[in-house]
Structure formats: C-alpha cells, structure tokens
What we know:
Elements: E1 16-17, E2 30-34, E3 38-43, H1 63-79, H2 89-116, H3 118-143, H4 150-164, H5 182-200, H6 208-230
Parallel strand pairs: 1-3
Antiparallel strand pairs: 2-3
Helix pairs in contact: 1-2, 1-3, 2-3, 3-4, 4-5, 4-6, 5-6
Amino acid sequence: MASKPAIIVFLCLFPIALAASAPNVKDSKAIYIESKANKTLEILPKIEWPGRDNFTNQFSNNDTQYAEELLEWYHNQLLSFIHETHFDTFRFEVVMAKLSIDLSDIMNLAQEVVLHNNQVSRQLQYVAGAFDMMVKSLLILNFYDFVGTSENYVVNRVVDLHVRILKLYTSHGSLNTDIKGCEDMLMGFWQNLDEWQEALWVIPELSLEVQTLIDEQVAQARARIRILFSQIPRKHN
Length: 237
C-alpha cells in the first residue's frame, strides 16, 4: 500500500489584512472597517440600509468592470486562507461572518449587472459557491477535529485536500493556467485521494457515516480534478 505521510498543519496566529489588495476602482467609494481580528473592505450599498450610516455608493464608469473587480478581490481573499499544505481554518473562522457580509454587499451592488451579463453571473455563482464550500468544510473539520482516531484523521485529510483544490481556480471558476506546475499538482491530489481511500481499508469497524462522508468528498474532489485536467492547455508539436 502506498505510503501516507502525515501533513503537519501550521496554524498562523497572525491578524489578517484583507483590505490590502482591495481593487482600486475609479469613482467607487468604500470605507475600511477595522476590528480586533481583521481589516476588511466594507462595500457601501447603493441604497440606504437599516442600521447603517447614510452613504451613497458611486459606481465606476463601467459597472460591469466594477462588479468583476470586486468579485476578483473577494476571490483573492478566499484564496489567502488556502495554503500549499493546508486550509487555514483558524484564520478563516475568525473572519467568516465578515466575509459573508462582504459577499452580501457585493451581491447587492452587482445585482443589476448580473441580470444582464452572463459572465459576471457565472463569476458570482462560482465565488459564492467557493465560499459556501469552505464554510461547510470548516464545519466538517471542526466536527471531526479530534485526530486521535484513524477515521477522523482520514476525514480531516480528505476534506482539507478538497478545499486546497480551489487554489487552482480563477474567480471565473476555470483553471488558473498561470500557476506553474498545475498539472503535477492535480496528479498529486489524485494520488493523495487514492492513498487516503486505501487507508480506510485497514480501519476496523469503520462507521457508515464516515464512509459515506469520505466517499462523497472523494467523488466531488475527483470531479473537480477531472474538469481542471480537461482545461490544461495541450502542447502541439
């Protein structure tokens, strides 16, 4: 059976500066809200919102470009929690609620563009889906956080790997071909999934709940890998 080296997870206990790479959009207005845990971009709504100060958002000259840049910025924030060796659940959980608010604000700002632009609509759908997947993965990882049992450890590794595949996507939901070695990374993910599935065979009395969860995660991860593999540019002789 293939070797199954343990991946050491380093939890980064540093504060987050989410607003550092916020898009510089002409004529757009935004304020920075600073909390104990992080700094993040507060998108100013187009209309008056209950419980908020009376700000009026000024769109850029190109509303479509503005929406795309906001989604690109937000996607970059999500990727900042995904490292080569692990999904940084500690930092993600700290700002998860704020990320949800930011996404809701972006949805409100982009709602008119989304209705008339399929590309932005798909971009929003992917980014929102990526955030949702990361939230669900965090809940699973927290539930199976005790790695003293073999089955919990395998769940932890498979779910963590599934999230790390997101690092290879653009904000439009396609393979980021600018990443060097993406083909090797995809092959590595596939082999890791094989190894973790093999590890289940030696676990005595594996619960049906865990078996089902792992099977679902592996199937979803493999589906992502297949799609991304199909998008790798082929070299022509």
